[in-house]
Design goal:
This protein has helices at about 5-15, 20-30, 35-50, 65-75, 85-100, 135-145, 185-190, 205-225, 235-255; strands spanning about 55-60, 75-85, 105-110, 120-125, 145-155, 195-205, 260-270. By secondary structure, it is an alpha/beta fold.
Length: about 270
């Protein structure tokens, strides 16, 4: 199973029809439980800085979903959003410029090779680290890029069923992943020698969140990978399943999960 072919189809649609892009962002925010958790943690972190203007690094911005949220809800701030995919960055530049959204810039960067120094108050890295083999190198780069007192927010699949891998040797549902996921112990062990200190963490996509993901994301993605004709029947599918999906997501969002197939971690540079 591969996300990228479907992602590229969606990117092509919102590229040709820019007025749909904000609607697309809102759909992602609604349908992906990780966005619920990420947006809550971003709002929490913004309060930590009081009223001062903060400099944010969106590490692996993709479509620009979280860049857009932060530009609207984490003010005052400046945002530098990067991705390794040139076409996606160009699309984001065009949309944000046409929308008149200020204090946001974009760049093409490989996170294993960045050399920013003491520059950012907040680094946001959502569903990126599981794609990168040299993760310790990237964590060191994040430490270097943060100002003292800054934070890095990382969201990733966890080792507890992340990437839909539940047994040793089982293939990841997401073919592009370099690893199945992290545990809090694994991340802490990698943060500590670098100088990052775990500030708070939460496992996501536990029992109900996992069921919601299957119903709302996995099964539709499998259908779309089988044939693009399923785009036609998706509205009917979601008309039936969406209420159940949202209820299960809310239960997960409101629960202190002991484990889950996702993990959300904030670390600080003290």
């Amino acid at each position: 199973m591969h996300y990228d072919p479907v992602k590229d189809v969606l990117a092509g649609v919102i590229r040709r029809l820019p007025f749909l892009r904000v609607m697309f962002y809102k759909t992602l925010d609604l349908m992906f439980l990780r966005s619920w958790f990420v947006r809550r943690e971003l709002s929490h972190l913004r309060k930590k800085f009081g009223t001062s203007k903060i400099n944010i690094y969106d590490a692996g911005c993709g479509y620009g979903q979280y860049t857009y949220f932060m530009a609207k809800h984490l003010q005052p701030c400046t945002i530098y959003a990067v991705d390794i995919k040139e076409k996606w960055i160009e699309d984001c530049k065009n949309f944000f410029s046409a929308s008149g959204i200020k204090d946001v810039s974009f760049g093409i960067e490989d996170l294993t090779k960045i050399s920013h120094k003491d520059k950012f108050d907040l680094i946001v890295c959502v569903d990126v680290m599981e794609h990168i083999h040299e993760d310790v190198t990237v964590f060191q780069n994040y430490f270097n890029a943060l100002k003292k007192g800054g934070y890095v927010l990382i969201n990733s699949p966890s080792i507890y069923g992340g990437s839909d891998v539940h047994e040793e040797g089982e293939e990841s549902f997401i073919g592009e992943h370099a690893r199945d996921g992290y545990s809090i112990e694994d991340l802490t062990d990698k943060f500590t020698p670098i100088g990052l200190k775990t500030y708070r963490h939460r496992y996501t996509y536990s029992f109900w969140g996992d069921k919601a993901w299957r119903l709302g994301i996995k099964y539709p993605m499998q259908m779309l990978n089988a044939s693009k004709i399923f785009f036609i029947i998706l509205p009917l599918y979601y008309l039936v399943t969406l209420p159940f999906t949202l209820i299960m997501m809310y239960i997960d969002y409101s629960t202190e999960n002991k484990t889950g197939s996702g993990i959300n971690v904030i670390a600080a540079k003290e």
